[in-house]
Amino acid sequence: MRMFALSLAVAAGSMATSWAADVPAPAASASAPMAVATSASAPGASASAVSLDNRVQDVKSDVIRLNRDLLVLEEELLFPANTQVALFVSMDVGVMFSLDSVQVKLDDKVVTNYLYTPLEVQALHRGGVQRVYLGNLRAGTHEIVAFFTGKGPHERDYKRGTTIKFDKTTEPKYIELQIKDSSKKLQPEFEVKVWQ
């Protein structure tokens, strides 16, 4: 029995020794592939990052496209073509008049008040057109009254209005409020143009 215990102890000691000797070797062999894997995965990691970046950009463009489609759908649902009316403001030259604000009344109800920044006025001078109102109207006769406030000739405060009566049918109605210079009268003119 003693012999068995001694041989067991010797066997256990040699196993412990061989086990202790084996421990660093796997660690060393494990670190070597790790270093190789790290150096090999560096190009893979950058390729993975590029792939991830491309996927993020694709998702961003999909979200932008989806948002645009949702806005179009929202406008179609909220403002169906058979009741839709849109009002736009445009300027031609604009030397005689510097626009500050626009107020629009539709059938004696104020539907919009808009205060312009200098950058917006510059955009209008360069040919820009701004949609100031989009809404629904039932078929029939309606009246628009628009008031333009700003600086007129000789830097005087200037407030002018224009009005138009129009018939709304089942088709969408687009109306442009135009500000033009009149060189004959040396003052601005305000007109309304109805587009079909």
What proportion strand? 35-45%
- Helix percent band: 40-55%
Helical segment count? 3
Mean pLDDT: 77
Q: Measure the end-to-end span.
A: 113 Å
In the predicted model, the low-confidence regions spanning at least 5 consecutive residues are 1-40
Description:
The chain is of the alpha+beta class and 196 residues long. The protein folds into 2 domains: 2-75; 84-195, Immunoglobulin-like. It has helices spanning 2-22, 24-78, 118-125, and strands at 84-92, 98-106, 109-115, 129-136, 140-151, 157-168, 173-182, 187-195. The strands form 2 sheets. Strands 4-1-7-8 form a 4-stranded mixed beta sheet. A 4-stranded antiparallel beta sheet has the order 3-2-5-6, with no helix packed on it. The termini are far apart.
Helices, strands, pairings?
Elements (H helix, E strand, L loop, with lengths): L1 H21 L1 H55 L5 E9 L5 E9 L2 E7 L2 H8 L3 E8 L3 E12 L5 E12 L4 E10 L4 E9 L1
Parallel strand pairs: 1-7
Antiparallel strand pairs: 1-4, 2-3, 2-5, 5-6, 7-8
What is the structure about, briefly put?
With 196 residues, the chain is α+β, with helices and mostly antiparallel strands. Helices cover 43% and strands 39% of the residues.
Which features does this protein show?
196 residues, alpha+beta, Immunoglobulin-like, 4-stranded mixed β-sheet, 3 helices, 39% strand, flat
